[in-house]
């Protein structure tokens, strides 16, 4: 006798939640199938309680720092991410389809268009991307980041895991750490992933220019795509910070990178944000254009 099995899956409105496809400090992303339109989506699942806990004890937000930048409370940051995502529309930025937010529930669901190829590369890897493939993906990511900067938004967590492949093009994902560049574009707070963080963005007290920090992260991301690893690493954030701030950029003997690519990486990974390559310079660079 086969007992009538209660469905082993979760159904949320028209979405049937399937296997996890992404995981991070933010929470989890599951594949979701919508019977309504016979289409798969990427469902990002967040816990409001977990986000509030990250806001400090008893959900008390840390004292608000003067000036722009995201509200300190991660839960408010998620609602801001949603508000920002809803107004964005660019072929190289992930598309938020809808938000399922039942005030009585702890879970918050962000429904995104599924980018079936997933992250452009998983690092570390022995099989990095060929320069020409990396160039196509880099151009897409560049257009997505340029669009964000045009909208006065700094992404602040650019890394390969947040460059997703769908319909043969790359889309920039995860605006969970983004900062509004209101005013002089000064941001603060040590957000993002340390190995991809700009030297000037380590010291939480100092203000830094969001756009220049994104260019640095994009440089580390390009380096990772073509070498399979990050340029500086460390067992602790402190050790990593020391290396990022003091160790010169170096390239592995294998794979051999073209001179033009090494020059571009040298310009993007300039430790001084004031002399670092700008978006315009990168768009006109010989490696990007030819
Ligand atoms: C192997 O096939 C795969 C196909 C798709 C995926 C995937 O989508 C993973 C993460 N997705 C996302 C993450 C986000 O933040 C962290 C955001 C955001 O908040 O903007 C949006 C999306 Cl879509 C993974 C593997």
Question: Can you give a write-up of this model?
Answer:
With 290 residues, the chain is α+β, with helices and mostly antiparallel strands. It is globular, with a radius of gyration of 20 Å. The longest helix has 20 residues, at 131-150. The strands form four sheets. The chain has a six-stranded antiparallel sheet with strand order 1-2-3-4-6-5. Strands 7-9-10 form a three-stranded antiparallel sheet. Strands 8-11 form a two-stranded antiparallel ribbon. Helix 3 (131-150) packs antiparallel against helix 4. Mean pLDDT is 89; it is low at 56-61. A hairpin with a 2-residue loop joins strand 1 (10-12) and strand 2. Helices cover 30% and strands 21% of the residues. It has helices at residues 48-53, 74-87, 131-150, 210-227, 237-246, 259-268, 279-283, 286-289, and strands at residues 10-12, 15-24, 27-34, 39-47, 96-101, 107-113, 118-119, 153-154, 163-166, 169-172, 179-180, 186-187, 208-209. The chain has eight helices and 13 strands. The ligand COc1ccc(C(=O)/C=C\Nc2cc(OC)c(C(=O)O)cc2Cl)cc1 binds next to strand 2 and strand 4.
Gist?
30% of the residues lie in helices and 21% in strands. The protein has 8 helices and 13 strands.
Compile the SSE list and pairings.
Blueprint: E1 10-12, E2 15-24, E3 27-34, E4 39-47, H1 48-53, H2 74-87, E5 96-101, E6 107-113, E7 118-119, H3 131-150, E8 153-154, E9 163-166, E10 169-172, E11 179-180, E12 186-187, E13 208-209, H4 210-227, H5 237-246, H6 259-268, H7 279-283, H8 286-289
Antiparallel strand pairs: 1-2, 2-3, 3-4, 4-6, 5-6, 7-9, 8-11, 9-10, 12-13
Ligand 91O binds at residues 21-22, 24, 26, 29, 42, 44, 94, 112, 115-116, 118, 164, 173-176.
